[in-house]
């Protein structure tokens, strides 16, 4: 029993430490040099992430039908978190447009991709990408619509990650060949995305606004709790395999996405409060993620 416990602790440490280490490097480098990450983040969103998505989705090993119920569950976790916490906004005196997007749209990129791969192995990368794709698609459609009802659905197809997803799925469905040299080139571009996401998250954390700490701490608690509750409630309906349930629970426990702050800033939707919710939520994940890993592993 003791050996099992030690093995679990070691696995959690080996999963969490690389993530914390890279984020910490970004944080301390950011404090020392104060780099402008806007260009790097834009390149990551426009080039490296699409390359990773295409590389995974276009591979012969990716079978969308295998993850159908998991994909449905992930979408319900995202949308259900908003519905579950919506009545709370009036009670705590915060605007729904400010509070709900960070509760719905989690850090499935910066944190979720490497976390799932480290926790479940390289074979989990297609799942991590699929969950990331679902969260991002909903964020750029439903999430943006919540802030601006004039958003046109067609604008979704202008996003490089969505274009790469469609192209990757078509490539896989028709079993199209990809020259080895081209495949290696795209794969190497994609490998840049995850470390850069983590590093950028660390740099972003130097701007934590502790004046809004109350709403930040509340969000840090409610975001993973609501996601995990919905994931567990879905299991009797979806009947996921044990490992897929683990994926969904870990997805539900992820903290708010950094992208929430960027979107709130663009639409002038109380970005200071959103920044506090996002950054304190990601700091709080140092506690909630190990607890979740202990539950699912």
TrEMBL record:
Subcellular localization(s) per the UniProt record: Membrane
Question: How does the record say this protein sits in the membrane?
Answer: Multi-pass membrane protein
Q: Which UniProt keywords apply?
A: Cell membrane, Membrane, Transmembrane, Transmembrane helix, Transport
GO BP of this protein: transmembrane transport
Report whether Membrane shows up as a keyword of the record.
Answer: yes
Q: Where are the transmembrane segments?
A: 12-30, 70-92, 104-121, 127-147, 159-178, 184-203, 215-238, 244-263, 275-296
Q: Name one Pfam family in it.
A: Mem_trans
Q: What is this protein called?
A: AEC family transporter
Organism field: Pontibacterium sinense
Q: List the top taxonomic levels of the source.
A: Bacteria, Pseudomonadati, Pseudomonadota, Gammaproteobacteria, Oceanospirillales
């Amino acid at each position: 029993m003791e050996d099992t416990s030690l093995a679990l602790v070691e696995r959690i440490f080996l999963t969490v430490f690389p993530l914390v280490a890279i984020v910490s490097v970004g944080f301390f480098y950011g404090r020392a040099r104060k780099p402008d990450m806007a260009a790097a983040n834009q390149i990551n969103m426009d080039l490296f992430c699409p390359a990773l998505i295409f590389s995974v989705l276009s591979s012969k090993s990716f079978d969308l039908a295998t993850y159908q119920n998991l994909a449905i569950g992930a979408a319900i976790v995202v949308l259900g978190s908003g519905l579950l916490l919506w009545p709370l906004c009036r009670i705590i005196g915060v605007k729904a447009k400010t509070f709900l997007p960070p509760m719905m749209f989690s850090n499935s990129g910066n944190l979720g991709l490497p976390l799932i791969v480290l926790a479940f192995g390289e074979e989990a990368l297609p799942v991590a990408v699929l969950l990331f794709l679902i969260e991002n698609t909903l964020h750029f459609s439903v999430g943006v619509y919540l802030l601006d009802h004039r958003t046109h659905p067609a604008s979704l197809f202008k996003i490089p990650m969505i274009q790469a997803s469609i192209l990757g799925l078509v490539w896989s469905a028709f079993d199209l060949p990809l020259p080895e040299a081209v495949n290696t080139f795209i794969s190497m571009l994609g490998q840049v995305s995850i470390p850069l996401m983590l590093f950028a998250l660390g740099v972003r954390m130097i701007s934590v606004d502790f004046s809004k700490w109350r709403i930040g701490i509340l969000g840090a608690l409610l975001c993973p709790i609501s996601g995990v509750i919905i994931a567990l409630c879905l299991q009797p309906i979806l009947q996921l395999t044990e490992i897929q349930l683990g994926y969904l629970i870990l997805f539900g426990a992820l903290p708010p996405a950094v992208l929430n702050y960027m979107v709130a800033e663009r639409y002038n939707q109380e970005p200071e409060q959103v920044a506090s919710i996002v950054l304190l939520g990601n700091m709080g994940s140092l506690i909630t993620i190990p607890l979740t890993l202990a539950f699912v592993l």
